[in-house]
Structure formats: C-alpha cells, structure tokens
Amino acid sequence: MLDLAKHVVLCALLGCVYASCPPRCECSEAAHTVKCVSRDLRSIPTGIPGYTRNLFITGNQISRIGPESFKGLDNVTNLSLSNNRISEVESHTFTGLRSLRSLDLSNNQLAVIHPEAFIAQNQSLRELNLSRALYNHSSVMDLANSLRWSSLGNLRSLDLSHNSLIFLPSRIFSHLSSLQRLQLSNNSLVAIHNSTFSGLERLQELDLTLNALKTVPEEGLRELDSIYPATLLLGENPFMCKCGIEPFALWLNRSQERISDAEDLVCAFPASMRNTSMLAVGTLTLGCHQRNVGADLALQTSYVFLGIVLGFVGLIFLFVLYLNRKGIKKRIYDMRDACREVWDGYHYRFEIDSGPRLSQVSTNADM
Predict the structure, then answer these.
(1) pTM of the full predicted structure?
(2) Rounded to an integer, what distance in angstroms lies between the CA atom of residue 307 and that of residue 312?
(3) Class of the 17-291 domain?
(4) Are 55 and 80 in contact (CB under 8 A)?
C-alpha cells in the first residue's frame, strides 16, 4: 500500500508538471527549458512554466510581440524567437524579462520597431541577434531610434549581418557603450562616414566582411581609427585599385596588427589589378604619381606654348596696323564724312516733313 501511495503521488506530481506545459510545446524542468518549435503558433503561448530559463519559440507564424507576451517569466535568460515572421515589436515587450541575457530575433521580418522596444529592467541583456531580421531600409531608422531609447548599456554583442544595409545612421550605436563585438557582415555598406561608430569605446571586434566597400576615404579611416584597438575584418569587399586608393593602402600597411584578414585583402577592379594584394598597392604599382607629374608638366608646357603663340599673333597684328596707319586714318575720315552727309540728309528731310508750310512749298516747287 505504501508503494502504491508513492506511485500515486509521483504520478500526480508528474501530471502537474506535464499540465503546466503549454499545448504544442515541449518542457523540461530538469533542463529549465521550453521548446515550441515549428508548431504553427500565431502568438506567444500562455502558461509557460515559471522555472523556464531557456525559451525557444521558433519557426512559427507569430506576426507581433508586445508587453503581454512574456509576463511572469522572471527567470528566462535565453530567449530565441528566430524564424517567426515577426513584423512588429511593441514598446516594453521585454520589460518583464528581468533576467534576460540573450535575445535572438534573427530571420524575421521586422518592419516596425517601436522606440522603447528594447527597454528592459536591470539592463541585463548581453547579446542581441538581429541577423536577417530587418524587413526594409526604413526599419533601419526604427532600429536606430530604439537603440537610442533602449536600456542596452550592458550589451556586449550585436549581430546585424545579412540585412542588406546600405548605410548606417549617424551615432546609431552611441548608447551601446559596453559593446564589444559588432557584426555587420553580408550587407551592402558602400561607405563609412563620420560618427558611424561613435560611442563604441570598448569595442573589441568589428566585422565588415562581404559588403560593398570599394575604398575607405580619409573620413572613414579616421572613424576606424577612433575605435582603436578593436580588431577589424574587411575581407570579401570589391576594392577598386585605381588612383586615389593610395591613402587606404598605406593605412592598411600601417594597421596590419589590427586587421585579422589583412593578408587576404585583394583588388577586385580593374581587371589588370584583380587579385593583387592590397598591401602591395601603392604609388609605384599604380603609377599615379608619375602620371600626375607628367600630366602637370604637359599641361604647363601647353599653357606656355599657347601664351607665346598668342603674344606673337598680337605683335603681328599691331605691326600690320602700324604699317597701314595712313590708309586706316583716311578710311576712318571717309567713313566719318559719309556718316555726316547721311545724317544731314535725314535731318533736312525731317524738317520738311514736320513743317506743313514748308512741305507745301516744296510740293509746288516740284510741280
């Protein structure tokens, strides 16, 4: 009877544990884990056990999340919401997750991110994964505003890879003062502007591989120097090795200790320079210095020659005028007399036409 009673109590306890697991989810109290993977869920399920530390809700059809989605989950430290087609994150969505340290929103379609979306208590979040998460370019501005309003002062890692980013708003990371690792790989960034990485004083690694950087102008080089001594990754960019890239090439040689893949950086264009090491690119390789000197010399010579020709033509013209000064003077006098006669004729005719009596006399005289 005693053994039977123990079994009944054990079964009852197991039943309670099983009953506390949301439908279409798998729960493990021993591992403090709840998984709701590819269950065609339309919203965050209710009844998630309070013991949960690792919560995986992935591969579903959830379109939005808000403050009511994670109530009572004070113990959750790792939350994965990847591949759910989430398009909207409301303000204070994660406020109730007091212990949250890792948040994965990758592979979603975030079109609307409210300004206070990432405000959380205790600033506990350390890792934020937004890889393949942004739906369009306008959501980048939403993200910038939410990062400025956020309580992510202790964030260590931010993943923004595979988002087709063309640009980054100025000072987008300025409130992430503790950020150590920033992944921007597999985007379409064409330039690095002033204040792009402002505020990242503790950054240790910046990944810019597989973007659309053809060169990095002096403004961008100053920005990269501002996050010294962070390690940089610049591989798989279509660098254009033509005149004007020399400052970037010299900077690469000077900063090799910071660039993990410096020896793998090669020219993509033009065809004659393809696969040439960026470290070997310089004024001697491109011949820009010599060509510029030759061009300047040729231009200066052309100007001097043109001046001499024009001066010679002017002297000839003045000499011709001098030789024909008498004839020119006579022609000028003749033109003056002819003009005077024409003017006197017009004046006489005007007086006749304006005086009726004189006009009549003139008419009778003609008769």
Answers:
(1) 0.75
(2) 9
(3) alpha beta
(4) yes
